[in-house]
Amino acid sequence: MRTTKWLVLLLAALVVLAGCDKKAEQAEEKAAAEQKAEADKAEETEEPEEPAEQEQAAAADEEKAEEVELGEPDPKLMDPSKLDEKAPETFKAKFETTKGDFVIEFRRDWAPNGADRAYNLIKSGYYDGIAFFRVMPNFMAQFGIHNHPKVNEAWKEATIEADPVKKSNTRGFVSFAQRSKAPERPGMRPKSDPTTRTTHMFINYGDNSALDQQDFTPVGKVVEGMEVVDKLYSGYGGGPPTGPNQKLAMEEGLPYLKKNFPRLDYIEDASVVEQEQ
């Protein structure tokens, strides 16, 4: 009799537990359904995701793209050998751009060959109207490809002699870009060649002092308007596949840049504004 009583009590307890488990399971299912409904609702109201934003940016670029026709190049830019005037010991150049103005001070005591080349390029109008074709946040902003392919061809091998590095490539300092030379042995990294400087210059955004060891010689420094340099459009990065191909930019000129990279910023005018003999 006592055994039967205990069996009845045990069965009753199991029934109660089963009922509790069933209620808990139903509550979990209900909560899951509510969460799914909230998630579905949220998806309907979310902002467009990155792919859609990229498509919109691409569409905006297409709208901004311009067709450009080039006339004949400026005759004075077609013979680099004639642009060989010695620069003042110190001079300042104002760069008026699509984002505002900045001023670079150039010094021959830092880099005489580089300062002379910069002086002649600025005075001749070489930099007027050209693009900041390579802008990389926290690294640098580069310019120097001319709008006309014939001018680029004329200056391609118009190199200057190397200058020893006297200043460091830190924020605001300006250096000429230079090509790399073939490695001495297979497997070695190519080294930068300071005797290949032509027309390309770059402005350092941050501490790029590692470039000092590769013989990138600062020739000047931004002394006014560095905040303008910071605003230059950098969305295209340092080159292909998102940014300009330098070889094509030199061969095709401004039409290539305007058609494919319409958001680039430009130097509208560059001029010597102050000089000290």
Characterization of the model:
With 277 residues, this protein is an alpha+beta fold. It has a single domain, classed as Cyclophilin-like (Cyclophilin, Beta Barrel). It is built from seven helices and ten strands. It has an eight-stranded antiparallel β-sheet. The protein has a two-stranded antiparallel ribbon with strand order 6-7. Helix 4 packs across helix 6. The radius of gyration is 32 Å and the shape is globular. About 13% of the residues have low confidence.
Features of this protein?
Cyclophilin; two-stranded antiparallel sheet; alpha+beta; 7 helices; single chain; 277 residues; eight-stranded antiparallel β-sheet
Number of separate strands: 10
Helix proportion range: 25-40%
Order of helices and strands: HHEEHEEHEEEEEHHHE
- Uncertain segments: 6-24, 36-51
Radius of gyration: 32 Å
Structure class: alpha+beta
Q: What's the helix and strand layout?
A:
Blueprint: H1 2-45, H2 50-64, E1 90-97, E2 100-107, H3 112-124, E3 134-136, E4 140-143, H4 149-155, E5 173-176, E6 180-181, E7 191-192, E8 201-204, E9 218-224, H5 226-230, H6 246-252, H7 254-260, E10 267-276
Helix pairs in contact: 4-6
TL;DR?
With 277 residues, this protein is α+β, with helices and mostly antiparallel strands.
